[in-house]
Structure prediction request, 330 residues.
Amino acid sequence: MKIVHTPVLLQECLDYLSPVGEPFENDAFMIDSTLGEGGHTNAFLQKFPGLRVKGLDADCTIQAKAKERLACYGDRVSFFNGWFNDFYADYPADARKPDLILFDLGISVYHYEESGRGFSFRYDEPLDMRLNSNEGENAADIVNEMKEEELANLIYLYSDEKFSRRIARAIVQARSGGKIVSSKQLAEIIWNAVPGNYRYGQIHPATRTFQSLRIAVNSELRRLPSALHSAFNVLKTGGKMGVITFHSLEDRIVKNYFKNLGKRCVCPPEQAVCTCGGEPCAEILTRKPVCPTDEEIKTNSPSRSAKLRVVRKIRDAGERHLMNIESEAM
Prediction:
């Protein structure tokens, strides 16, 4: 089986999320919220013989690769096909609570190289970008149907693309002559829309627009706040939760939610009496985000923007810990 994705910050995840000490040492349970090809899970199962893992993924095709890769671990690993926010929201009250939870919010190299769904502008593929190909609108629906101003705002919001308005205008003009249906077609429209000197920068001029479309198609930012909150409350007291981000917006959501968890009080400033419990819900184990080493960036370039944040649970969180977090995901 060909493995095309290298898990980022792998040693750092093993160190910060190690199931060592009571009550986790000999019988720990971990949920890998973003299984992908199973790289992180494989390393955890190898290093910690007493560990069991449930792997979640919205994409059944990449999960099939993970199942093949992890088959040697037998019943130590199980699987769930679906979105992580749905999984945690519907977590059975009588089910075992996990000792460890990991989110890796990056998109697998598999999706760019092998999925055939238009994630990459390097190939001429149908403009889809859905992780779950059986539901929701795809990228072609957005570029062919969204109003110009909304499209420009989406591109700018999710990627900080400074030529978002020019790109949106060019897309709308192009689709008037027929639907935009392929990744290569869209990339060429963007290439021709931007100034000449912008075409030969450090990244391809279509990079940010493709990122924005992928985030929108899969509701990546909108799913995140509720998923973090539900997952934290599912986590066993004393357990650890780690999140790897690759995008400034998603990292801000994680940072601010964890910051709220670490506060003694999250009541509104104008409220005279504390009603939230007056105690922190979590110990923040990474006061600053853990970033990849120069060596990792050199050998695995997709890791360059990765940041790992980790907390240890003290008690359940309330709805107020989501205060101002969900608005950042809109």
